Automatic annotation (TrEMBL), chain A:
GO terms for cellular component: plasma membrane. GO terms for biological process: transmembrane transport. It comes from Paenibacillus sabuli. InterPro entries: MetI-like (IPR000515), MetI-like_sf (IPR035906). The lineage of its organism: Bacteria, Bacillati, Bacillota, Bacilli, Bacillales. This is Carbohydrate ABC transporter permease. Residues 81-270 form the ABC transmembrane type-1 domain.
Length: 285, 323
């Protein structure tokens, strides 16, 4: 008797779980409708974008024409892509390197003023970048960094967030490894390159992926510090494309899909790291 | 007094001398090592320190300085004129600034709304469904997508005359649905809805991480006592998540208060300035109208508000949060 009761209980429990999953999937689908609509509209001829009831699967396909128009049309999407790749990759590399070095210095080297300097870095984290942009605009003009990719890369590369994230991780690296290397006569440079960095690979990957996504998606900084159209990143390009093609909605949707896809790929590949990194402290910016 | 005589005096003196020499040498090499250590410390932290100095500290100090001047940088450094708190007086006297501040405060509502939804979803996802990983990805999608693409899609979805949202509302029998982003009295609400949609995923992921840290035996004990799901949530889950909730609230408020990109792309402050916010005004003054001093005073206000929120966090952490 009891066993049967337990069995039905288990079935009931499973059934409820399956039902809840199905319901939540439905909710998730509704949540993602804007993306699904965007994808579907990007396949349609212009005249059928707004037909109602919505044709989720287009009656007439215009996929090739729409995407060719975006990629080989008047707006140079290929160039924007290339610019974005350059800026995002270089910013990520610079930021990971500078942050890892600083994190190593603040955890593994004893030097005078270390705590004070770290406190200063910590304090600047409270300063919202937005509050510095107006003077930075003036400084950038004087330094010749305005309207250059270098300006964007430097600004993103010296964000202090990575230092905190990696410092936390480096503190977990046992000093024994490092000290045994020290006995063998290895200096800080060797200990950093040969021991710390390989051990910290997961943390470096997490921060690197996050920094890449943030840089790729950043609209604000390029919008403020670039004016030359040939230097535009994909976000700026997309913005000016939407501005110029105000009523060609199928094309705008094709451009939006093109702008989101690389990020989606990075996110799906690095999903674990992204979610870990976000959970680590709800970091953003 | 008997003079002590040590037959090995000379040897002892020799040994002492050698010891002293060695000690000096050792101390010297210790000092050299410490100096090398210092140098290494500065070399490793140096790049970040210089970066922080150039890209954050100096600009911040300049913000404070420039906020006290009447200056446009295009006219050159020689036209700079000290103006005391003139900018601030002008700022607080204009309706535009007051309006933006009100819009900012209204938009802050999206933070608790998004957090409530996120908490409910997080509980369901961690305890009641299969494939929790898939749901994390689904609800995180809007956040990972670029603001520009997302804003453009929503503009089209909410198009007043032929967007799918209003087509559906009209099909449901609503003759005159709101014009959403094109209607001054609905635009801010539309922006708020979109903010909830974009930012909810972050809160969700952090809540899920927080839920995993709650020891399972607490729930088991409660079940033995016959506690209902709601009671378990009220007496275990919610109180133990207070640090997470508090953290999300503070970072959410700060992030929301600074929002610029979404507003710029989605509404450009309109229609009829019904969606302007402080950051939007600041960029318009500083980068379009080139009123450097005036825009700097807005930056200072922005900084002050965010500092205030951070201070509340510091004080509140001690008082309100159960660890």
């Amino acid at each position: 008797m009891e066993r049967i009761a337990a069995g039905t209980n288990k079935t009931a429990y499973r059934l409820r779980r399956v039902l809840t999953t199905a319901l939540l999937l439905l909710l998730g689908l509704v949540f993602l409708l804007p993306f699904i609509w965007m994808l579907s509209a990007s396949f349609k001829p212009e005249l059928e974008v707004f037909t109602y009831p919505i044709q989720w699967i287009p009656n007439n396909w215009n996929l090739v024409e729409n995407y060719t128009n975006v990629w080989a049309g008047k707006v140079d999407f290929v160039l924007y892509y290339w610019n974005s790749i350059q800026v995002a990759v270089l910013t990520t590399l610079l930021s990971v390197l500078v942050s890892a070095m600083a994190a190593y210095g603040f955890t593994k080297i004893r030097f005078r003023g270390r705590n004070l300097l770290f406190l200063i870095v910590l304090a600047t984290y409270m300063i919202p970048p937005e509050a510095t942009h107006v003077p930075l605009f003036v400084i950038y003009r004087w330094m010749g960094l305005y309207d250059t990719h270098a300006g964007l890369i430097l600004l993103g590369g010296f964000s202090v967030l990575g230092t905190f994230l990696l410092r936390q991780f480096f503190e977990g690296i046992s000093n024994e490894y490092l000290e045994s290397a020290q006995v063998d006569g290895a200096g800080h440079f060797t200990r950093f390159m040969r021991i710390t960095l390989p051990l910290a690979r997961p943390a470096l990957a997490t921060y690197g992926i996050l920094r890449f996504i943030w840089t790729w998606n950043d609209f604000q900084t390029p919008f403020l510090f670039l004016s030359d159209k040939t230097l535009y990143t994909i976000q700026l390009g997309m913005y000016s494309f939407a501005d110029r093609n105000g009523s060609f909605y199928a094309l705008i949707m094709a451009a939006s899909v093109s702008a989101i896809i690389p990020l989606l790929v990075v996110f799906i590949i690095g999903q674990k790291q992204v979610i870990e990194g976000i959970s680590f402290g709800g970091l953003k910016g | 007094m008997i003079a002590s005589y040590n037959p090995y005096e000379a040897e002892v003196a020799d040994i002492q001398a050698i010891d002293k020499q060695e000690a000096v040498m050792l101390r010297r090499s210790g000092r050299a090592r410490r100096r090398r250590e210092m140098l290494a410390g500065y070399l490793f932290t140096g790049p970040m320190l210089v970066g922080v100095l150039i890209f954050t500290l100096v600009p911040m100090l300049l913000s404070f300085g420039l906020s006290l001047t009447d200056w446009s940088f295009v006219t050159g450094i020689e036209t700079i004129r000290f103006d005391g708190f003139g900018n601030f007086a002008r700022l607080f006297a204009t309706d535009a600034f007051a309006n933006s501040l009100v819009h900012n405060l209204v938009l802050l509502l999206s933070v608790p709304v998004g957090m409530t939804l996120a908490l409910a979803l997080a509980v369901v996802i961690t305890t009641r469904v299969y494939t929790p990983g898939l749901f994390k990805v689904i609800f995180f999608m809007p956040h990972i997508s670029s603001i520009v693409a997302v804003a453009v899609v929503w503009q089209v979805l909410f198009h007043p005359s032929y967007g799918p949202v209003n087509s559906m509302l009209m099909a449901l029998g609503i003759a005159e649905p709101p014009k959403w982003l094109a209607d001054p009295s609905y635009a801010l609400t539309s922006v708020l809805m979109l903010m909830v949609w974009i930012d909810m995923g972050v809160a969700l992921i952090i809540y899920i991480a927080g839920l995993k840290n709650i020891p399972a035996d607490l729930y088991e004990a409660a079940e033995i006592d016959g506690a209902t799901s709601w009671k378990k949530f009220k007496h275990i889950t919610f109180p133990l998540l207070t640090p997470t909730t508090f953290f999300l609230l503070i970072t959410g408020l700060i992030g929301n208060f600074k929002s610029f990109a979404l507003i710029k792309v989605l509404t450009d402050g309109g229609p009829v300035k019904s969606t302007t916010v402080i950051a939007y005004d600041m960029y318009t003054e500083g980068f379009v109208n080139l009123r450097t001093g005036y825009a700097s005073s807005m930056a200072v206000v922005l900084f002050a508000v965010i500092l205030l929120i951070t201070l509340i966090q510091w004080i509140g952490q001690r008082k309100w949060v159960n660890y």
